[in-house]
Specification:
Layout: H1 6-15, E1 17-22, H2 26-43, H3 51-56, H4 59-62, H5 67-70, H6 73-83, E2 87-97, E3 105-108, E4 122-128, E5 139-141, E6 153-155, E7 167-169, E8 179-180, E9 187-191, E10 197-199, E11 208-216, E12 229-234, E13 243-244, H7 254-267, H8 277-282
Length: about 290
């Protein structure tokens, strides 16, 4: 079911999210999980940073493993139902909660830190490579909250918050209105960058592994002062707002590490309010 129906598009416009959308078979999800965990085993201790740091921040620049999912036609077909035929990838990384982990993600809006002026020309795809049940700490959404503008956020720097600054919405969120976006391996959710969302701890005995891909239209504004980047996934870029980059093949090669450093250091300048590179790009899904 890759293409969205008119009813699904209407639901997304009303609620600000859509799930579950089947995009991979359970076998394909398992294969992709094995590739990710293979990177962890094979490269830990051999790089300048822990492997998890590269997986969590712009992983598509360090390895071509995430691109195998992000470029899947079934993923892009669904995204096209939201954004139209011209699709650019702005970022792509893994959100991993270890088994029996107390780590959470506080209520937040993604677009707070993206330097895109709260645009409607974006959508985040969250693709489950393992079970993402409510017990495993799946995302929770407040339906319709994407119709809010960007609200104030506070930095808590909480040790158990997966967001680097522990940023959370500074207005009251009625959790009674929240909907749990549980996903089976191979299923995907789509959500708007202004949507209120969060996730709880993983109380299960297995890791919760999700690939998060942030797609934008090429005409999405960039309000930052620095240079921004994107990867064209489908269609044409007629606007040139961002530099189009071509990810490299392989895993943690010298050429990939050079490109990774250049892009992540420069892209941080786009994001607002004096955030450093790690803080800026660690804000996102849950």
């Amino acid at each position: 079911m890759p293409h969205l129906t008119s009813a699904q598009r209407a639901q997304y416009e009303r609620d600000g999210f859509l799930c579950p959308i089947p995009v991979l078979t359970s076998g394909e999800a398992a294969e992709n999980r094995a590739l990710v965990e293979g990177l962890e085993r094979n490269f830990e201790g051999k790089l300048e940073q822990p492997v998890g740091s590269y997986l969590r921040l712009a992983s598509y620049l360090a390895s071509d493993v995430p691109l195998r999912v992000a470029r899947d036609a079934r993923v892009l077909d669904a995204v096209e139902g939201i954004l139209g035929p011209d699709i650019m990838m702005w970022s792509c990384e893994y959100f991993i909660k270890e088994a029996n982990s107390e780590k959470i993600v506080s209520w937040h809006q993604d677009l707070t830190y993206w330097g895109m002026d709260g645009s409607d020309h974006e959508v985040t795809a969250w693709i489950a490579l393992s079970d993402a049940s409510e017990a495993a700490g799946c995302m929770k959404f407040v339906p319709g909250s994407h119709r809010e503008q960007i609200v104030p956020h506070n930095d808590t720097f909480s040790e158990d918050n997966l967001l680097s600054r522990g940023q959370e919405i500074a207005v009251e969120v009625d959790e009674g209105e929240a909907v749990a976006a549980a996903l089976a391996p191979g299923e995907m959710s789509l959500h708007h960058g202004r949507l209120f969302h969060a996730s709880g701890p993983n109380t299960t005995g297995d890791r919760r592994i999700g690939l998060v891909v942030r797609f934008i239209r090429p005409d999405t504004p960039s309000s930052g002062q620095g240079k921004d980047f994107g990867v064209m996934m489908r269609g044409v870029d007629r606007h040139g707002i961002r530099a189009n980059i071509a990810p490299l093949a392989g895993d943690f090669t010298p050429a990939q590490m050079k490109l990774y450093k250049e892009v992540t250091a420069t892209q941080a300048e786009v994001l607002a309010d004096g955030l450093d590179s790690a803080d800026a790009l660690y804000s996102g899904a849950a």
